[in-house]
Amino acid sequence: MEKNEKKLTRSDINKTMFRWYFSTEISLNYERMQSISFTYALMPVLQKLYDTKDDLKQALQRHLALYNTNCTAGGLILGTVLAMEEEKANEGNISDEAIIGIKTGLMGPVAAFGDSFSAGTLQTLCILAASTLAAGGSFFGLLMLFLGNFILMCELVLTTNLTYIKGREAIKDVLSSRLMTDVLEGANILGMMMMGALTASMVTLVTPLAVTFGETKMKIQDNFDNLIPGLFAILVLFLFYFLIGKKKVSISKVIFGTIIVSIALSFFGIV
Predict the structure, then answer these.
(1) Which of 152, 136, 256, 260 is nearest to 198 (CA)?
(2) Residue 211, SS3?
(3) pLDDT digits (tens, 9 = 90+) for 78-88
(4) End-to-end alpha carbon distance in the chain
(5) How is residue 4 annotated by DSSP?
(6) Among the four residues 17, 70, 154, 174, which has the most C-beta atoms within 10 Å?
(7) Whose CA is closest to 39, among 69, 72, 12, 16?
(8) What is the DSSP letter of 216?
């Protein structure tokens, strides 16, 4: 008797993507990171592909191994795993170790790409734009936040479907392509430009201090503005970068420290 081939539908893939997207951080833990969310996302597909309890049990066990990567760029791995599980259920020529190895080996490079480009650039730019609009009293600030999430969702859909259709080899082509290198470089340049522009427009540090020479009173702020406009703001940015990037000070400590220092400097009339 000819064996019926099990084929995943568009609905199966979409359900897996959305289950993964909305549960990624919910069950995050230090022992296995995102493995529970990944297994939860795949469960309907695994139940469809594997008829016996033993096969389903093995599938659940291999996906409960340690797993951690960027959510939306992680579609590159998600689509690959879907293709491999489908082939394993039909042909049985893919081992458990191969599936686990693909996940483990790619979760680092995919996380690096996703955290720098998706979360570190695309999402950050949308949040900064939304903050700027909101600070100006524009309702479009809220829409910009939704736009950021929509872009990330599109990334997840594209990467998952791409790797599911093309299989395991597609992810190597995507990550090693010249186009991806150019996109990352351009995104980093754009991000730095946005950070500089937003620092100049949103970070404010003004001092009323003045120096008196005889009968002449010279304000420090006016002289620095004539020499290098926005100097104090950029110094604050470099200080935060030094504390967070070089000294590994947590963001919460930087925020509370800024509030305390600001209150103290204001009390003494320095700023």
Answers:
(1) 136
(2) strand
(3) 998 998 898 88
(4) 84
(5) P
(6) 70
(7) 16
(8) E
